[in-house]
Design a protein that fits this description.
The structure holds two protein chains of two kinds. Chain A contains 14 helices and one strand; from the N terminus they run H-H-H-H-H-E-H-H-H-H-H-H-H-H-H. Chain A is an all-alpha fold. Classes of the chains: A mainly alpha, B alpha+beta. At the A-B interface, strand 1 and helix 14 of A face strand 1, strand 2, strand 3, helix 4 and helix 5 of B. Chain B: It comes from Candidatus Methanosuratincola petrocarbonis (ex Vanwonterghem et al. 2016).
Chain lengths: ~350, ~400
């Protein structure tokens, strides 16, 4: 890129980011509704209206009375959700074509780094939150006759933070292994190379109305399909959805670290979670099918949005038929999936 | 702790409730854990004290029945039935056989709904919403049948002293409906049970947790399906005259874990269907109520009945005017509480809640306390008990 092109590029980058972020956030608000509707139909229920879980509930929480968290450092606890939104929006933007050329952020390093940051947030949220629903409940636990007086008493959210740490260590490993496969096949760390390998027509196209389709998607290769399966399970783990929702298992930890987010903060948390759901789906379409979210190529953008429904729909089916797994099952599952991920990686290196 | 006991290191305490989205009733669970493993457990009840036994005192015995039925919404019939069995036993009141058959039919129908509620709750705790919802869907067939028999889904009010309410008598068409409905139900229910058993994820959550050996079950007085799932062959129905005409098996399981507690209940539903079929097909002709009795002084009398969660005891005396004195109810849950605390040990935190749920606690029904001090009986509020005797006395 020559120096004269830089202002134009920055302008394009800003415009592309604004369009992509706006469309991505709005679209992400519809996904939970679709997921819940599919789940409900599987369970022979009518289910909620499609806009209710993602859109109207966010709007509703935005208008609720503000409730201050009882966290150890309320300011930090509140700011974590803003960080979260920033991280997931950047994660999505890094996979859009304009960002591929910015400081190497449109690469496996950018994606994996931001995903790890997102995981760390749950540890921090868990360590901060102190709702009244466990230790803080005004019940005379340590009165006369009680068992084990004088030991450490922990809030359920803190226990959720510990579980988040375990999930960071082992639970999310399969997702990162699966992410590596398309990059290994393209023999590059850059998203551009991965898309170019699958969809050379797109890279060469300069017509904004064209719709170059991928000629050799990673998804339709042996390592690609193995990695896609592992990616899907990793996607479920990262979203903390059943069967891997141990950090926010309703039966013990209720909502985990995000328990104290109420009113506007809860609305922001929903936005964070919804955008993460969409960002991971969009990354899958970009890396495994070769159709990136290009704000300046409407057909490609619509294709990416449409195919991004795949993972949430599969997630809904899985959630409807799954119990919550405990670490007794999660450890072997994560090890088995990691093994499949490693196998896919080895095969992809051979390819 | 004695010197011979193994010392358990506790890292921390996690506590849940009495206000918690997963606890359908107000109680406090304190888990003493090392990392994720439960080393000890403490269940605290008495969060919703209603003083229901005190309400009975001085009431005419017929009116007391209405209160007895309201001890529990799930076990309403069993409380009403056992309440009348006390006076029928104490004053030697004959009950027509037809009435006994209809009482048994209602009892077994409600047993099925109770077990299906447990499945709903247990699968909600497991996190499998589909199985939980299917369970509640299946339960609707029997809620309808209970309403056809008694006129109400939750409080059918079938038994009265000396028989049943005449409106609860079974007509020929109702007998036909019951037989058709239980055939339909059985087919759907078999499919439901098969799907649960064939689901490896669900079975992996249920198997190998919440161990309660037969010795421990007997030691902690675990009753009902909780005890039978530990291989303890104890069912009050086998000793009851009302159940003598019926052929049924007492289901036991030697696995002693959470899965066993679910499986025992699942199989008991088939036995209940068997009993209902026999009772409807062989329903004797004749009156449904014997009104030739008079309330008079009665000594303290006890009646036992196999409720859906275990052994239920009702006991009271009548004064010379036929008014109730010293009503005592022991629901199955108080005797199962210690077993629940013990069964949790060694489980993961998330599994411990499931283990407690699999013992099917009904804590609001069991929450009552009466103090007998120097021969004088009186009822205290929770606060008064804590002030006078300390917590957990």
């Amino acid at each position: 890129m020559v120096m004269e092109d830089v202002p134009l590029f920055v302008l394009g980058l800003i415009a592309s980011s604004i369009v992509a972020a706006a469309i991505g956030v709005l679209y992400s608000l519809v996904l939970p509704g679709i997921e819940r509707k599919v789940q409900a139909r599987i369970q022979q229920r009518i289910g909620p209206p499609i806009l209710t879980p993602g859109f109207w509930s966010v709007l509703k929480f935005g208008y609720k009375k503000r409730v201050d968290p009882n966290a150890q450092m309320p300011g930090l606890y509140r700011s974590l959700v803003y960080f979260g939104i920033g991280i997931v929006v950047l994660l999505f933007l890094f996979t859009t074509p304009y960002w591929w050329a910015v400081l190497g952020w449109g690469s496996i390093l950018g994606i994996a780094g931001l995903l790890k940051l997102e995981e760390v947030l749950y540890v921090l949220m868990g360590s901060q939150s102190q709702s009244f629903l466990s230790t803080g409940m005004p019940v005379p636990d340590i009165a006369k006759g009680s068992k084990h007086i004088g030991i450490k008493r922990e809030f359920v959210e803190q226990h959720s933070g510990e579980r988040a740490l375990k999930m960071m260590a082992i639970g999310s490993l399969p997702l990162y292994l699966a992410l590596l496969v398309p990059f290994a096949m393209a023999k590059s760390t850059m998203i551009r190379s991965v898309v170019a390998m699958q969809n050379p027509g797109y890279i060469m196209s300069s017509n904004w109305l064209s719709a170059p389709l991928p000629s050799s998607p990673v998804l339709f290769t042996l390592p690609g399909i193995l990695a896609a399966i592992v990616y899907f399970v990793g996607y479920v783990m990262l979203l903390n959805e059943k069967p891997f929702s141990i950090l926010k298992a309703k039966i013990d930890l209720i909502e985990g670290g995000v328990l104290e987010y109420a009113s506007k903060l809860r609305a922001y948390y929903y936005i964070m979670r919804n955008v993460l759901m969409f960002a991971l789906s969009s990354i899958f379409v970009t890396l495994f099918i070769g159709i990136p979210f290009d704000p300046f190529m409407p057909v490609m953008m619509v294709l990416n949005l449409a195919l991004s429904l795949l993972l949430p729909i599969m997630l809904a089916a899985l959630v409807a038929f799954s119990p919550i797994l405990t670490f007794r099952q999660i450890y072997p599952a994560a090890i088995g999936l990691s093994a499949i991920g490693v196998l896919a990686l080895i095969i992809s290196l051979g390819v | 702790m004695t010197s011979g006991e193994k010392r358990v290191e506790i890292e921390k305490e996690l506590s849940f409730g009495p206000v918690h989205p997963a606890l359908i009733e107000p109680y406090r669970i304190r888990l003493f854990v090392n990392d994720e493993i439960v080393e000890d457990c403490e269940l605290n009840i008495n969060m919703a004290y209603r003083g229901i036994e005190k309400l009975f005192d001085g009431l005419p015995v017929e009116r007391a029945l209405l209160i007895a039925e309201r001890v529990c919404g799930i076990c309403s019939h069993v409380h009403a039935w056992n309440s009348v069995r006390v006076i029928e036993g104490g004053l030697k009141i004959d009950v027509p056989p037809r009435a006994n058959y209809i009482r048994v039919i209602t009892q077994e129908m409600q047993r099925i709904t109770s077990h299906l509620i447990l499945f709903g709750h247990a699968f909600e705790v497991v996190g499998h919403e589909t199985f939980a919802m299917r369970s509640f869907l299946l339960r609707e067939s029997f809620m309808d049948l209970i309403s056809y028999v008694g006129g109400n889904r939750v409080m059918p009010s079938v038994p009265i002293i000396g028989g049943i309410r005449p409106r609860a008598d079974l007509t020929e068409s109702l007998k036909r409906v019951i037989l058709e409905r239980i055939d339909e139900f059985e087919e759907k229910y078999k499919g439901y049970v098969a799907r649960i058993i064939e689901d490896p994820l669900v079975m992996s959550r249920l198997t190998g947790i919440g161990f309660l050996t037969k010795e421990d079950a007997i030691k902690f007085h675990a009753t009902g399906p909780t005890g039978r799932a530990s291989g303890w062959d104890y069912d009050v129905r086998t000793k009851m005259d009302e159940y003598k005409p019926f052929d049924f098996n007492v289901i036991t399981d030697e696995s002693c874990d959470t899965k066993a507690r679910i499986v025992v209940r699942a199989l008991e539903i088939f036995e209940s269907l068997k009993i209902i079929r026999q009772a409807v097909k062989n329903l004797p002709e004749g009156p449904v109520v014997n009104r030739s009795w008079k309330a008079e002084e009665m000594d303290f009398t006890t009646a036992l009945l196999e409720a859906y969660r275990g052994e239920l005891m009702h006991s009271y005396a009548l004064d010379s005017q036929g008014r109730i004195r010293n009503y005592k109810i022991r629901t199955p849950t108080p005797t199962n509480l210690a077993a629940m605390e013990h069964a949790c040990i060694g489980d993961h935190v998330t599994e411990a809640i499931l283990t407690i749920a699999s013992c099917d606690p009904c804590l609001t029904c069991c929450t009552r306390a009466e103090i007998v001090d120097s021969g004088k009986s009186f009822v205290l509020s929770d606060l008064e008990i804590i002030r006078k005797y300390g917590w957990r006395k």
